[in-house]
């Protein structure tokens, strides 16, 4: 039995040709601008990493030169320091707790706002949208008093809970259109098969909303990892300080050791940067799904 392959239609050939022409019509200046923006963005990181392999004498003689010779004692001194790993462990715990709260609470709040029809739904969603315009610095004093009254100062929860609260508006704004884009026929078929709303939520909606949850989770993790103001006010115990606070303490204690400070800063930034770059494709796909929704 032979199969006949139909020739491409005129419309498909035209669409393919127009798509190819659009790809060819990209101006070289777009690539030049992209390279310039990428270079400007990465230049401070590359400078800090390379400067960590230099001595203070090399930095003073030629601030923009390459290491010659390469000095590894700055990095080995930081990596063999127990305080650095204590700071990193505290950052991992707080960022992990913050991310778990943001993802779980965010998808549970976005689900009724996206799939239910009830009075005041849009007004309730607008409350979360307004939360995007509410900066942390404005609420820091009342927030500090509230956390102190709850006796959560110098605890992981005292930092993770406020960070999760401030990350929720962005999470809901991203997840709501993502969940709205799921077809109603899918939910109706699940109901006909005997699934409840909660069963549809856990068995079908959660697996399908994976890209959106990963996107919000990565953004929450990176935001918590780089958080400075809340840990500064709420963590006075040196054993609970996070990496940004550790960088500030190290810079103050060894202010004359510029190369050592740059090495410490590089090691504090690189984990979040590598994590963000690793998950970059998932973030883009999740945001595209939210925009399409």
TrEMBL record:
<feature type="region of interest" description="Disordered">
    <location>
        <begin position="1"/>
        <end position="20"/>
    </location>
</feature>
<keyword id="KW-1003">Cell membrane</keyword>
<keyword id="KW-0812">Transmembrane</keyword>
<keyword id="KW-0472">Membrane</keyword>
<dbReference type="InterPro" id="IPR000515">
    <property type="entry name" value="MetI-like"/>
</dbReference>
<feature type="transmembrane region" description="Helical">
    <location>
        <begin position="29"/>
        <end position="50"/>
    </location>
</feature>
<keyword id="KW-0813">Transport</keyword>
<feature type="transmembrane region" description="Helical">
    <location>
        <begin position="157"/>
        <end position="179"/>
    </location>
</feature>
<feature type="domain" description="ABC transmembrane type-1">
    <location>
        <begin position="88"/>
        <end position="279"/>
    </location>
</feature>
<feature type="transmembrane region" description="Helical">
    <location>
        <begin position="259"/>
        <end position="278"/>
    </location>
</feature>
<comment type="similarity">
    <text>Belongs to the binding-protein-dependent transport system permease family.</text>
</comment>
<feature type="compositionally biased region" description="Low complexity">
    <location>
        <begin position="1"/>
        <end position="19"/>
    </location>
</feature>
<dbReference type="Pfam" id="PF00528">
    <property type="entry name" value="BPD_transp_1"/>
</dbReference>
<dbReference type="InterPro" id="IPR035906">
    <property type="entry name" value="MetI-like_sf"/>
</dbReference>
<feature type="transmembrane region" description="Helical">
    <location>
        <begin position="200"/>
        <end position="225"/>
    </location>
</feature>
<feature type="transmembrane region" description="Helical">
    <location>
        <begin position="123"/>
        <end position="145"/>
    </location>
</feature>
<feature type="transmembrane region" description="Helical">
    <location>
        <begin position="87"/>
        <end position="111"/>
    </location>
</feature>
<protein>
    <submittedName>
        <fullName>Carbohydrate ABC transporter permease</fullName>
    </submittedName>
</protein>
<keyword id="KW-1133">Transmembrane helix</keyword>
């Amino acid at each position: 039995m032979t199969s006949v392959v139909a020739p491409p239609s005129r419309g498909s050939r035209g669409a393919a040709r127009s798509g190819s022409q659009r790809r060819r019509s990209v101006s070289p200046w777009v690539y030049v601008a992209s390279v310039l923006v990428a270079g400007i963005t990465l230049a401070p990181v590359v400078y800090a990493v390379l400067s960590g392999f230099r001595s203070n004498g090399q930095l003073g003689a030629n601030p923009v030169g390459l290491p010659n010779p390469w000095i590894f004692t700055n990095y080995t001194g930081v990596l063999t320091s127990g305080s650095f790993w204590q700071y990193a462990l505290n950052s991992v715990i707080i960022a992990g707790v913050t991310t778990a709260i943001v993802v779980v609470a965010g998808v549970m709040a976005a689900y009724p706002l996206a799939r239910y029809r009830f009075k005041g739904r849009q007004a309730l969603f607008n409350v979360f949208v307004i939360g995007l315009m509410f900066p942390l610095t404005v609420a820091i004093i009342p927030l500090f008093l509230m956390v102190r009254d709850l006796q959560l100062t110098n605890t992981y929860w005292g930092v993770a809970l406020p960070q999760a609260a401030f990350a929720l508006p962005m999470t809901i704004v991203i997840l709501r259109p993502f969940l709205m884009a799921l077809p109603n026929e899918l939910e109706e078929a699940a109901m006909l098969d005997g699934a409840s709303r909660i069963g549809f939520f856990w068995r079908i909606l959660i697996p399908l909303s994976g890209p959106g949850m990963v996107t919000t989770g990565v953004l929450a993790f990176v935001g918590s990892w780089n958080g400075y103001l809340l840990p500064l006010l709420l963590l006075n115990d040196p054993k609970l300080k996070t990496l940004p606070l550790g960088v500030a303490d190290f810079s103050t204690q060894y202010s004359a050791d510029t190369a050592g400070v740059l090495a410490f800063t590089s090691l504090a930034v690189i984990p979040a940067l590598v994590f963000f770059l690793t998950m970059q494709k998932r973030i883009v796909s999740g945001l595209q799904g939210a925009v399409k929704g």
